[in-house]
Fold these 3 entries.
Entry 1:
Amino acid sequence: MSDFVYLDNAATTFPKPPEVIRFMCDFYSTRGVNPGRTGFDLALEAEDTLLEARQALTDFFGGTDRNRLVFSLNVTDALNLLIGSVLAPGDHAITTCLEHNSVLRPMYQHMAHGVEVDFVTFDEYGFIDPAAIEAKIRPNTKLVVMNHGSNVIGTIQPVAAVGEICRRHGVLFAVDAAQTAGLIDIDVAEMKIDVLCFTGHKSLFGPTGTGGMYMAEHVDLMPCRSGGTGVKSALKTQPRDYPWRFEFGTLNTMGIAGLLAGQRWIASRGGVSALFAEEMVHATRLYQALREIDNVTLYCADMARNHLPVFVFNIDGLPADQTGQLLDVEHDIITRTGLHCAPQVHEGIGTAEIDGTVRFSVGAFTTESDVDRAIAAVADIAGYARTRAEKKTAVMA
């Protein structure tokens, strides 16, 4: 492996734990068949792995019924399925300006077909006021959906307070936990989350192409999709039983095995809180050091206030993509630049017109040495930008 520093964990965690990779390979080589479609031993063993993964994730999220844990391709797939199964023309929905395109684009699509949507803005520190969401609720409000943690500015939102408001008003509350599942403790009952959507390839340490949602027992929705389930095949409609009500076709069994292995690995490292604490140490040191570098601008970042190990910045005089290219080519540091699939966030922090920012996102395998190299690299590039600006000023004079 090349000697690079990986600071793009908000996109996908890398590397995956060796235990996850070994378990997936063992699963696929010994029992990687269609689970539960028939009665032979390998199918039953594959089904047992899926049931174990359902139970592990249900417990992980504070759920009560493992059959309510349904698997999908990723969080975007889960959110599309959920939104499409809830909203119809004439309905009203509420979301926020912190959302990823996994929420924004389905909302825009439904707006074009007669659904009204309100977008609640965030404050100067990057947080949503729950009262602002409550103020938008109408008699025809069917859904409130928001992310738990921003993939751009890293702020962790007060979802429990919003959940309390939605429960009081009888409005379905869905949470996009793409950035927080596996990093922040989530209890769907305590937080009054009706539907929790998650992805597997970030802080759950599973592979890409995995995710799903947990639906509380009182939630009763009919899906906007249908297809094969391997059970009740004579029915002309999708079975009403969970999990088959919201699962269609052959599942990514190898990926789900990886999710189960990821759960075990998280537990072996002391659990969510221990991993989060380790990552925040590195992220905070990196953030504090960048604050001291001349002509580096950080956005909405206060690592002491309900924050993920994620933040964005720019170097004055350089477009974000150029900074990212210099980090990669000159310093072997991998990061993410641009609008991060969340254009309304960049509109809110004033970076949309300059094509976004550079994002650093620390992960479980980030080291002190990685942080040192990132600090030195930003300082070097900032120095280059200052020198270039000074030369340009001198020529103009």
Entry 2:
Amino acid sequence: MDIRIGIANSPREIAIESTDSPADVEKVIADALDGSKTYFTLKDNKGKVYLIPTAGLAYVEVGSVERGRVGFVN
């Protein structure tokens, strides 16, 4: 599934491909925004961990499950 995160005052967005379900991602973000956490973490399908600040969070777009790709694969 694709996750795109916009950070305030930044022209670029963070794009993550994750194996987590949309409900799991939504819960992690909602818990961080409801509590007093200054950041939340997400892990992509290659094992990289992203620390995203809650203060600069502009938007989060959670996409559907990844479909088959065409072309070269890394």
Entry 3:
Amino acid sequence: MEYEAIIGLEVHAQLLTESKIFCGCSTKYGSPPNSQTCPVCLGMPGVLPVLNKKAVEYTIKMVLAVEGRVKEKSVFARKNYFYPDLPKGYQISQYDQPLACGGFIEIDLPDGRKKKIKITRIHLEEDAGKSMHIENEDTKTLMDMNRCGIPLIEIVSQPDLSSPEEAYLYLGKLKQILMYLRICAGNMEEGNLRCDANVSVRPKGEKGFGTSTEVKNMNSFKGVEKALEYEIQKQIRILESGGKIEHETLLWDEKKEKVFSMRAKEESHDYRYFPEPDLVRLVINQGWIEKIRKTMPELPDQRENRFIKEYNLPEYDAGVLTSSKDLADWYEEGLKYYPNPKILSNWVMGEVLRELKERRVEIRDLRMKPKDLAELLKLIDDKTISGKIAKDVFKEMAETGLLMHTQKKAEEIVKKKGLVQVTDKAQIEIVVGKVLSENQGSVKEYLAGKKKLFGFFVGEVMKKAKGKANPKMVNEILKEKLKIGDA
């Protein structure tokens, strides 16, 4: 029997506010354990939470970005459960009256089709603390309460995803939107972005849903994809052997690449939700929404389409360049100094991204400015250096900017190393003559019809000229010497 998967994702995104959702404690990552706490986020008796307005504003931005509906009135609720890292014994979240509902995220499928993944709800809540288990110590667990009260938005999708690959694409698009809005750092390793997946399988063509399981503890997009692949195959094996899927919460073990049962899946009534008595109803008027709408940046899809139309770029180029807001900004800044969209695109997608990948840094870490790259490209255009030499110059520019913190300019490197391109015909003719005389056998083969050897001659000339000979002139002189010119 052929089966199909039904997947819904619950994504928690940490908002980039400077203070927590209900108190003034800092949200800075990496501070000493328990150094960013106060009676409010520690849940001491008699304290009162005060809602962070910036957290609400950021949530509204996300809702507008996915074309959802901000509700005029929403209510915070107490979600009651006991964890050692939840000192109050409950989490302030939203339940039956969330801040927003509806909307969608559109993903690009590998076959070229687009698919809309609908959003059920987006709501605000606070994070719990963090349990730390000491290695080789089974009896001790340490608690860091710095995360208590960190503002989160929970984005719940409808079960519209039908494969682990689609889940991966959805998460990538979601992260991209959050980072374009500058409301989330998007770093899963630091807990900025967390994902729980609800997954079930059913015989292909059936309309009803199978029993779902919830998979937690996935700390990368690839981890989500692998965990879903594992769980889908496991559920299919159980059904085909006549077994029954249990409605449970599972943990993904990254090292063993397996899921393990954590507990029976809770239902909403298990949390005994009731309205938070210390917070008034949240009322959002249309005027505030429209004010926020005016601050919205150009979103990824909009920017990609503009790059295609305005700069006449291929769809692939536009997709790569707009994959992050910082990269798109860097590219557009470069166009101010070098208004050739396609050549600049080739260099950004090639040399710039290669350098960033090799050094495992972001574009914002690169001291080289778009203007510096533009000056390098102008040296190619005016035939001061060749394209091959330019790549070596670029590498040194990037290296000095990242490692030595003293960004060298292209012209400075070219002059210091004597890399100026040779355009003197007489000089190039001498080098060509030497190459042909040293390779008489290859010349005879070429003249006998082995035309592919022309590339060999070009390479040998460039090697002898240390890459400084003008490539166009090298080609022309070789054709002339080998008697295959226009005559």
